[in-house]
Amino acid sequence: MKKKILIGAGIFVSLLLVLLVLLVIFRSQLLEMTISKIEERIERRYPVDFKIEEARFTDLNTVVLRGISLVPLERDTLFVTDSVHATVSLKSILKGRIVFNKLEVSDGYLTAKKDGEVNNFSFLFRSGDATPADTTGNKGRNYGELLNRVLKTAFDNVPDKVDFRNLNMSYTSPHRIVDVKLPFLKMDDGRIETQLTVQMDSIENNMLVRGTINPGDYNISASIFATDTSGIQVPYLKEKFGGTARFDTLYLSLEDKTYRRDRLTIKGKGRMKNLVVNHPRIATEDVYVNEGAVEYVVTLGQNYFSIDEGTRVRVNKAIANVTASYQPKPSKIIDLKIETESVPANDFFESLPPGLFENLEGIKAQGELQYKMSFHVNFDQLDSLKFNSDLDASKDFKILQWGKTNIEKIKGSFVHTVYEYGKPVRTFTVGPSNPFFAPINQISPYLRNAILTAEDAGFYSHKGFHEEAFRQAIIKNLKEGEFVRGGSTISMQLVKNVFLTRHKTITRKVEEAIIVWLIENLNLVSKNRMFEVYLNIIEWGPNVYGAKDASRFYFGKQPDELNLAEAIFLTSIIPSPKRYRSSFDSYGNLRSHKGYYYRLIGGIMRRRGLITEAEYENLYPNVKLYGRARDLIVTAPDTTQLEDDTSKFELETIDLLDF
What contacts 378, CB < 8 A, 6 or more positions away? Predict the structure, then answer.
């Protein structure tokens, strides 16, 4: 029995040795066949010349590949690498095929080039033999289809296990050069780790990236960390938009992808820490966001882009639900909805990024706040534009402590500084101690009523905002293709002049709206006091501020002595006070275009019972200049052909709706 066992074992060992010999003999031929099939498959799928110059076993199950290159037909080389070491599954060899389990790639160079319409990489994103989407016809490009191809190509070619050493990537075009160096890139069982240096023109970023990937579910997530104290700078913002942005950490993920009916929907998350933004149109100094996050659901299709339900944006502690859509053809249609969750008032004010809303920094409050906004416009039907905006507060909302700026200062006397181009030009007291201050009851009713008619007829009845006037302003600006009309109420103009500098930033309007809301909804100041302050600080000419200063400058009168014609003239130059001289000819007579303005304002005042029929019939567009204005205007050369017609400025804020 023992002898039979020994004989059996000997036979088994002999067979094993024979198999190993056969394996060693034929594995090289099997490797050649595998390499040939790989080359054939890639060249059949893509218009390229793919070569592996050498492939051989270095031990029982390790292969080295050398001289690998991928060259698109009639294009520059896209990829080359010095060597690839791969581990081969012995089981796969026994089955008559070779499967590479692990790849170690050294000294790889991926070089993308573009010159006009010619490039050496776009073939990777084509679907089979399909041609790229038509970008010249009326249909336009389907960016959903394009992004879906990119994602499929990327995920379908993710290896299970790879270890890159010294991987170099570059992109070159006539206007852009990008260089990326990766000392290492490891992928193992869905885990990714890499260190990289990215050089984009004059900006160099050093980063560490860690993440996970699941190609089968189109799922990827990555955290990007800055490895030096300067953070990660966002490229191209300076040259394209005139601003800068940097951050310390960024997290991004793609969690789901669905392509149906020619539309791609993607879902995922993003999170950024210590974001610093600088742009003169946003704010005059750096804007800091401690943490921002987004949960996104985005759909792209043929002439269709949308931010779908389920998208949430968080800035520090404030969270908003956002939906939006943009359809460029056949009619350009834009929809936008923003709704915040009910948030503690303190969290709301603390979430406002420092540097963005200077007057609101440091406010302490109780209660809760919630904001809702909806906007819809069809550019073929601009008059049907819809806009609604509401900031709601709980019944117990109140300010416990003002921060950097005491908004209630306008209740009494205060020092006011006038700014031009961000620089102070004049400082004066708004109160009885200033000899040029005029209490509201010492200002002509003609002037008060003319200003209310032209600037904000609903001032005494609204809560700081006139949505219909604002909606009409948006429509007018869209029709003209430029900013030609504002939608500001007197409350908003007052806040702009008292609390804000004249820097024209995007966020200034938001800060203005919040302060107006606080004043009006908390009843911090009476309407009469607001109007009184407004009449004493607005500009009316060269270093002329307030109704008393203006009355003396133009007519040598006290403000309670102004007649109807003088009041309407002063009202007409409020939108553009620096153009006051263009209202007159060289003899001091009002120019003819003023006639329409007088008839318009006078007619509205008559219909509202602010003047009598007789006063309207006796109203003529003519005033007599006295004081300093006469010396500046009458002695000037005739500027009939040189000065601009300012009627467009005079009429831009008139409430034509008889609100």
Answer: 331, 332, 333, 384, 385
Q: Which residues 6+ apart lie within 8 Å of 328 measured at CB?
A: 140, 303
Question: CA-CA distance, 131 to 459, in Å (whole number)?
Answer: 61
Show the low-confidence residues of the chain (pLDDT under 70).
Answer: 1-27, 89-100, 126-140, 482-487, 502-504, 506, 635-659
Query: What are the structure tokens assigned to 8, written together?
Result: 């059996």
Per the structure block, which two tokens stand in for 609? 């019972």
What is the model's pLDDT at position 503? 65
70 vs 112: CA distance, rounded Å: 12
Query: Checking DSSP bridges between strand 100-115 and strand 161-173, what pairing results, if any?
Result: parallel
Say if CB 391 and CB 371 are below 8 A apart.
yes
- Whole-Å CA distances, 497 to 161, 270, 533: 64, 39, 10
Quick: pLDDT tens for 245-302. 999 999 999 999 999 989 999 999 999 999 999 888 787 788 888 999 999 999 999 8
Query: Largest alpha-carbon pair distance within the chain?
Result: 138
CB 598 within 8 A of CB 615: no
DSSP class of residue 134 equals P
Q: What's the CA gap between 111 and 494, in Å, rounded?
A: 58
CA nearest to 512, candidates 497, 525, 523, 530: 497
The pLDDT score that the predictor gives to residue 58 is 82
In sequence order, which residues have a C-beta less than 8 Å from that of residue 643 and are 6 or more positions away? 579, 581, 582
DSSP-assigned letters across all residues of 343-396: EEHHHHHHHSPTTT-GGGTT-EEESEEEEEEEEEEETTSGGG-EEEEEEEE-TT
φ and ψ at 403, to 5 degrees?
Answer: -100, -120
Task: Quickly count helices (H) and strands (E) in the chain.
Answer: 16, 28
* Ramachandran angles phi, psi of 272, nearest 5°: -135, 140
Q: Which residues contact 35 (CB under 8 A, 6 or more apart)?
A: 52, 55, 65
Q: What is the pLDDT of residue 515?
A: 92
User: What's the pLDDT score for residue 357?
Assistant: 85
First to last CA, the chain: 114
CB neighbour list of residue 574: distance below 8 Å, 6 or more residues apart = 451, 454, 455, 538, 540
Phi, psi of 46 (to 5 degrees): -125, 150
DSSP string, 442-463: GS-HHHHHHHHHHH-TTTTTSS
Q: Tokens at residue 316, please?
A: 């520090």
Asked if residues 437 and 546 have their Cβ atoms less than 8 Å apart, the reply is yes
Whether the CB-CB separation of 255 and 268 falls below 8 Å is answered with: yes
Instruction: Read off the tokens for 95.
Output: 């089955």
* Predicted confidence (pLDDT) per residue in 202-247, tens digit: 889 999 999 999 988 889 999 999 988 889 998 888 888 888 999 9
Please tell me the distance from the alpha carbon of residue 443 to that of residue 492, in angstroms, as a whole number: 21
- CA-based nearest residue to 161, from 193, 187, 191: 187
Model pLDDT, residue 415: 94
What DSSP assignment string belongs to 195-217? Answer: EEEEEETTEEEEEEEEEEEEGGG
